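Journal club prep — side note

Before the paper discussion, L.F. wants everyone to see what a predicted structure for a comparable chain looks like in token form. Sequence:
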Amino acid sequence: MDDPIQTYDFIKDIIKGRKDDIVGLAVPNGDRLTLSKGKSKYTYIISLLLIMGPYHFAKNACITITHKIKKKLGSFGWINDPTIIGYAKSQNIEIKRIKSPNNEEFRKYLESLNLDIIINQSQSFIKKDLLKIPKIGVLNRHNALLPKNRGRLTPFWALYKGEKETGVSIHFVEESLDSGDIIVQKKYTISKKDTFNTLVKKNYSFASQAMLDALKKLEQKTNQFFPNDDHLATYNSTPSLKEAIDYRWKKLKRQL
């Protein structure tokens, strides 16, 4: 997805590392504020303000707004395209703008490419018909130590639950949420000084290398994967406003 805060650099690093192997880049509609049906975007935004704190929330908002302005200027040809699409084009990588990864027309296009691997970083649940297209599989980066903390906003939940460690998992995608064997996992200890923002930053400092390591591992045709055991799994949804308030209150009490 076209996300200037974290995903752009993650995808850019993968392009740099495996440019000669990349067939194309597809960018679907939607962004990090795309929620499941019945979830309030405005409540989510307020929850993010509480979780991130005013400074980091404002900083990310400024980055996002600036990106949208530059994107509009780029569409008129007044400046270089600042999006991940613009970067991919500069590397002569074919681009597709799509409604959803599960779109039938896009799926038929993918079927024509004889793909080994698809890397998914969209907000969509990938359906069975797409999952069976690549010969090796569909891969996902998840900001948690699977099978624990499947779902959204995992750095928040690791802190909310008082966990001692977290990290990044690169795993095969299946139809179930964040299931599929784990190919590579990077972990680190959560310190008392860590916040949601520091965990996100640490996770993305590992993420692109973890994905490149996973691709190398698959290239070597190893089957030494880690089980993503459903029986050990924990699941998280979008934090409620009450949970965000609880989290902020606990942080304030520790500072007093």
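L.F.'s comment for the group: The two ends are 40 Å apart (CA to CA). Keep this in mind when we get to the figures.
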